[in-house]
Amino acid sequence: MQMSFQSILFARRAYDTTSEDAAAPAFFADLNLDQVIAAITAGKQVYQLKPFFYAPLRDADAIHYRQEVARDLENDALLENIKTFAQKTGVVRRYFRLIEELTYAYHKAGWFVEAVDVYCDAVTGLARDLAQAELTSRGLLAFREYLNNYVNSDAFTTLQADIRQLKAALATISYCIQIKGLRVRVRKYEGEVDYSAEVEATFEKFKQGAVKDYLIKLPQASGMGHVEAQILDCVAKLYPDVFAMLNEFCTRHAQFVDPTIRTFDREIQFYVAYLDYIAPLRRAGLNFCYPQIGVGDKQVEAQDSFDIALAHQCVAAQIPVICNDFYLRDPERIIVVSGPNQGGKTTFARTFGQLHYLACLGLPVPGRAARLFLFDQLFTHFEKEEDIRNLRGKLQDDLVRIYAILNAATPNSIIIMNEIFTSTTLQDAIFLGKKIMERIIQLDLLCVCVTFIDELAGMSEKTVSMVSTVVPENPAQRTYKIIRKPADGLAYAMSIAEKHRLTYHQIRERIPA
User: Fold this and answer.
1) Phi-psi region of 384 (alpha: psi -120 to 50; beta: other; left: phi over 0)
2) Are 80 and 201 a contacting pair, CB within 8 Å?
3) Disulfide: which of 22, 27, 83, 324 matches 380 by Cβ 3.0-4.6 Å?
C-alpha cells in the first residue's frame, strides 16, 4: 500500500507525542532502563534521541509500523547503507558548525560549497542504495518513494547542476603571489615554469632506494588569517565572474537541506542506535524477537526472556545469562514471585517491565518469542531507603507511595512491586499486602509482586505463584531460574535467618573446626 511519507518513527504524525524537554519516566531507575537508554544514546547526542525513548506508543498500528522498519534494518547491507548516509550528513553538520565559527565571507562560502557537495552525494547515494534494497516496511517504502521523487525534482537537479558548474568554474582559477618584503602582489597565472617540478626532476637521479623524508609536516588549520583573506579578496577581483557565481549560489541555495530528509536522518538513528546496542548480545547467542501486541487481551507470555541491562554486564564479563519464561492465561493477572534472597526475583520483575516498555517503543525485545500487553501506564514500587526529609517512617512511605499508584492506575496499567513492607512485622505485612492485592485484583490490572509473603500467591484465581529455585543438592546455591510452582513457605524464614546470620552455613562459619 502506497502512502505519503511523514516520518520513519510515526505512522501518522498524530502519534508523535514526544517533547524535546521530556524527562525519563519515574520507573526508569527501578527497571534499570536509565542505564539502557544512556548506553544506547551514548555517542549520538547530536541526534537528541532520548525523547523518543521516553515516549512509548499507545496504538498497536503505530507499534507495528516501527517493528516493520526495524525488521528491514536487520538486513546488514541496508543498515550499512544507512550508516554511510549518516556519516556523510554528519560531515555536512560539521561543515555547518565550522562555517558559524569562521570570520571571512569567502572562506565561509568555500565550506558552504563543500557542504552542498557532500549533501548531494549523500542523498543520491542513499536513493541508489534504497532502490536496490528489498524493503517490506511501510515506512521505508514510503521514504524510498519520497526520496526518488526528491532526487528527480527540479529543486534537487538544479542544485546538482549548479554545484557541478560552480566547482568547474572554481577549478579554472589559478594565480601567482609575489612577495617582496611586506608587500604582497596577486596576479593571474601566466604560464610560468613550475620550478619545483624541475628541481625534483634534477635530483631524481640521485635517489637510492627508500630515503628518509625530511619535510616538515605543517598542521593544516581550517581557519584563515587576515593576510590569506586579503589575498583571496584580490583573487576575487581577478575573477569577478566566478566569484559572482559563488555569491549567487550561496544566496540561492542557503536552505538546501530538505526538511523531510533532515528529519529522517535524525529519526532513523532511533533504530540504528538500538540495533547496535543489542548486536553484542545477539553475537553472544541471546535471542530477540518482535512481540505480538495484545490490545485489551491480557494474556501475556515470553520465552527465554532476560534483563537487557544485566545481560550487557554479563556478556562483557563473559558470564552466562540466565533466561526465564513466564505466561499468564485468563483469568490470571498477577505473578507473585517468592523464594530465597539473591535468587533473581528482582531481575525477573525488571525483565517483565523492560519487555513491556521496549515492546511499546516498537523495538525487538529480549526473548525467543513474546506476547505482551499494550499498557497505558507503568508503575513500579521498589524498596527505597528512608528519607528523613519527608518526616515519614519507612512503612508510612511505602503506604503513601502505593496509595498514589493505586489511585492513578487503570485496568490497562501495569504495576511492578518489589519487596514492600519488609520494615514491619509478618502479621502486619500479610494484612497490608492482602489489602493491596485485593485492590489490584479489583482493578484487573497486570502485576508482578516480589514478596516474602507466600500467602499472597494463593489469594485468587487471578494470582499465580513463581519461585526462584536453588540447586537441590546445595540449597545455598542459586540457579536464578524462576519457575511456576507453589510457594514453599521458606522465603520469609530464610530472609530472617540471613538477616540474623543464622543460616546453616553462617552458623558453621562460627563453629571452630
Assistant:
1) beta
2) no
3) 27
3-state SS class at 72: helix
Residue 322's domain spans which residues? Answer: 284-510
Does residue 249 share a domain with residue 302?
no
In 3D, which of 109, 114, 71 has the Cα closest to residue 92? Answer: 114
Write down how long the chain is.
513
Q: How far apart are CA 437 and CA 19, in angstroms?
A: 35
What pLDDT score was predicted for residue 487?
Answer: 84
Helix (H) or strand (E) holding 479: strand 474-484
Residue that the C-alpha cell 519516566 belongs to: 25
Same domain (yes/no): 250, 335:
no
The letter for the amino acid at 212 is K
Domain count, the chain: 2
Looking at the fold, whether 162 and 85 belong to one and the same domain comes out as yes
Cα(355)–Cα(367) distance, integer angstroms? 9
Helix or strand (DSSP H, E) at 283: helix 259-283
Give me the phi and psi of 295, to 5 degrees please: -110, 105
pTM of the prediction?
A: 0.88
Residue 38 lies in a domain: no
| pLDDT tens per residue, range 77-120 | 999 999 999 999 999 999 999 999 999 999 999 999 999 999 99
Question: Rounded mean pLDDT of the chain?
Answer: 90
Residue 453 lies in a domain: yes
Is there a single domain that holds both residue 242 and residue 352?
no
Grid cell, residue 55, equals 515516549
What HEC string does 214-251 produce?
A: CCCCCCCCCCCCHHHHHHHHHHHHHCHHHHHHHHHHHH
Q: Are residues 264 and 327 in the same domain?
A: no
Give the integer Cα–Cα distance in Å for 147 and 123.
8
Q: Which of 99, 93, 69 shows the shortest CA–CA distance to 82?
A: 69
Task: Answer yes or no: are the C-beta atoms of 359 and 370 closer than 8 Å.
Answer: yes
